[in-house]
Design a protein that fits this description.
Blueprint lengths: L5 H11 L12 H17 L6 H17 L32 H16 L5 H19 L5 H22 L71 H13 L4 H9 L9 H17 L3 H29 L4 H8 L19 H17 L2 E6 L18 E5 H14 L5 H19 L6
Antiparallel strand pairs: 1-2
């Protein structure tokens, strides 16, 4: 079963049922936010040609729209748009008019999701429409003045439209149309990334080579200090060589538990909502457990979405700046020509690790908002067919802290044999730095 919650399933059944009238569970405000987050995950997973880079961008705009579509109704919170990179001010609600903020959020989420994933199927667009209509019906019927409902819907859609127009100028608009640039020429130097024979993609061109040129959500995240990469050196006594030797030695002694971690965090776009979607999923799980007020739900999705989006943008900037090789090219040449990683190579350079920078970002946001001690079970891949090739099942992950979760996500790429420890260390550190900048925005007065 996909990640749509039982709430969402009931909603869709209610809309599509023609033979009899189904009773729809009355959603709470918090469940409305959760239902839209899960719909976003569903659309991400079931839209063709999606990539981790493009998905990260989408979650940034979706989360920001949720927050900005209701923040005007919560005096203790601030809009953060003036702090963002070129967005400027958004329209404000009329001072002397009443609004229903759940209806505003509902309309805004439907509008931004339809816009940002315009390429998704008509069937998926009907799912978006269905959820919007059910939520509208449940909350609008409580309002005696129809003008309030209409005004709220118009406001939410207006916020979504303004944010979507801003998104068109970030450099990643409709990025799914240009996943692989065949005209782009790879740098030719020692230690440069090469398309391996054992890979996740048939393309011999790296994914989104220009993504690092895109605009960040935060200005501060556009001017981060460049991380240090270990200099190329094939000498057995060098730090560079030792990094790959560590990968090689780990591959020979992988435990079953480490293999389970390696396949769990693969998050291939064809099989999941991508690594940034997995981060958004964690926000869903936390909010289900904590059940905070609606504005805090929206703030959580906004923080996670923008932190992950800026993490991937900077990660790709540095990946193509250093353009470093992966173990599957270094180890066969200098250590063991028979080496083949446990997990296939993704189609882009290694340093720093995208999984690690993503993990550092989401864990830092969630720790800041909810503390690091958690009881979290990740069942997102439970039910998937066993990986017969690697003889590994998809086993749910259990965590007692966000730090533990982030470390396992990063380590999983080391277990898979596609990242060195240095790739992961730097990724985690930079993800934390990016998320701290998001946390420091003036979210509250």
């Amino acid at each position: 079963m996909n990640r749509l919650s039982h709430i969402l399933i009931i909603v869709i059944i209610t809309i599509s049922s023609c033979s009899k009238k189904e009773e729809t569970k009355q959603l709470t405000e918090q469940e409305v936010a959760t239902a839209w987050a899960e719909m976003s995950l569903y659309i991400t997973q079931h839209t063709p040609a999606n990539t981790p880079t493009y998905a990260s961008r989408c979650f940034g705009y979706i989360g920001l729209t949720m927050y900005e579509s209701i923040v005007a109704g919560y005096p203790e919170n601030n809009s953060v748009v003036v702090e963002l990179n070129g967005l400027g001010k958004l329209s404000q609600p009329a001072v002397d008019k009443k609004y229903d903020w759940v209806l505003s959020l509902n309309a805004g989420q439907a509008q931004i999701l339809r816009s940002i994933y315009n390429q998704t199927s008509d069937k998926n667009k009907l799912k978006i429409d269905s959820l919007e209509n059910v939520i509208y019906g449940q909350f609008a019927e409580k309002i005696e003045d129809e003008a309030i409902a209409k005004r709220s819907v118009a406001y939410g859609k207006g916020i979504a439209d303004a944010i979507f127009e801003w998104s068109k100028t970030d450099g990643g608009h409709r990025g799914y149309l240009k996943n692989f640039d065949k005209e782009w020429e790879s740098p030719k130097r020692e230690g440069a990334w090469q398309p391996p024979l054992y890979a996740q993609s048939f393309s011999h061109h790296p994914l989104h080579p220009h993504w690092g040129e895109n605009r960040t959500f935060l200005k501060t995240n556009d001017s981060l200090e460049t991380p240090e990469m270990i200099p190329y050196n094939t000498s057995k006594s060098s730090d560079y060589y030792k990094e790959f030797l560590t990968v090689y030695e780990k591959d020979k002694v992988l435990t079953q538990a480490e293999k389970e971690a390696a396949i769990w965090w693969g998050d291939d776009p064809d099989e999941s909502s991508t690594p940034p979607g997995h981060s958004y999923f964690f926000a869903v799980q936390v909010l289900k457990a904590v059940n905070p007020p609606l504005i805090q739900c929206a703030e959580t999705y906004a923080r996670v979405g923008m932190a992950v989006a800026d993490a991937f943008r900077n990660c790709w900037k540095w990946k193509f700046m250093f353009f470093t090789e992966r173990p599957n090219t270094f180890i066969p040449k200098y250590i063991d020509q028979e080496f083949e990683s446990f997990w296939p190579d993704p189609p882009f350079p290694a340093f720093p690790s995208g999984h690690a920078i993503n993990a550092g970002a989401v864990s830092t946001v969630l720790t800041e908002m909810y503390g690091d001690e958690v009881s979290l079970i990740d069942s997102s891949h439970v039910g998937r067919r066993r990986d017969d090739f690697r003889e590994v099942d998809f086993v749910a992950r259990k965590f007692t802290s966000f730090t533990q979760m982030a470390n396992e996500i990063a380590d999983s790429r080391f277990y898979g044999g596609i990242h060195t420890p240095h790739d992961n260390r730097v990724g985690l550190e930079k993800g934390q730095e990016i998320a701290k900048n998001v946390n420091q925005l003036p979210w509250r007065k």
